[in-house]
Amino acid sequence: MLDQLFTGKIRLKLLARLLLNPSSQVYLRQLQKDLNVSSNTVRLELNKLSEMKLISTVEAEESKIKKYVANTFHPLYSNLRSIILKYVGVDQLLEEVFYKLGDVAEVYLTGEMADGKGTPFIDLVVVGDIDKEYFEQLATRAEKLLNKKIRTAIYSKNEFSNSLLQDMPHVCVYNGEWGIDSKLG
Fold it and tell me: Of the CATH numbers 3.30.870.10, 1.10.287.3510, 1.10.10.10, 1.20.1050.10, which one belongs to the domain with range 2-79?
């Protein structure tokens, strides 16, 4: 099955798109446009991932558009999601930066990467009482390691509300209550 999984860049991009934000639903034309490949190429890859039961289809009666979503019940889902997070560098960022900051309550991956799109940026929302100057130093080091620009919004626990994330794609990648391993693994 692993040989089937990682046979090409398009499949890896599709997996990243669906596994980074498992609650998102995508459709063929959207993926064709985002990945800049033919609809037939996307359709073939989606069919293969469906055959492996890694993704499921959702059909809305009113629009008759078939949408695809990650199968979070697949036995390999957690492991594959962890691999994808490693692929995009989020796991390394969490290990290199956020464990060294002290009182971090939550970290959200936002923007295009949270939507599973390839981007040279890692957009984050950090919630906690942290040393911002020290954070900047760590983020600069992490940028060199990951070869991506890190953009952040930092909120204290009192300032932050989930409504701030309401209109943007986001995935919680760290919560101080459950730590990194349960979300990544």
Answer: 1.10.10.10
Q: What is the pLDDT of residues 83-115, one digit of tens each?
A: 777 776 666 666 666 666 778 888 888 988 887
Q: Which helix (H) or strand (E) holds 124?
A: strand 121-129
89-184: CATH number: 3.30.460.10
Distance between CA atoms of 70 and 84, rounded to whole angstroms? Answer: 13
What global pTM score does this model have?
A: 0.60
3-class state of residue 8 by DSSP: coil
Both tokens assigned to 106: 């939550």
Q: What angle do CA 58, 63, 67 make, to 5 degrees?
A: 25
The answer to whether residues 106 and 175 touch, using CB atoms and an 8 Å cutoff, is yes
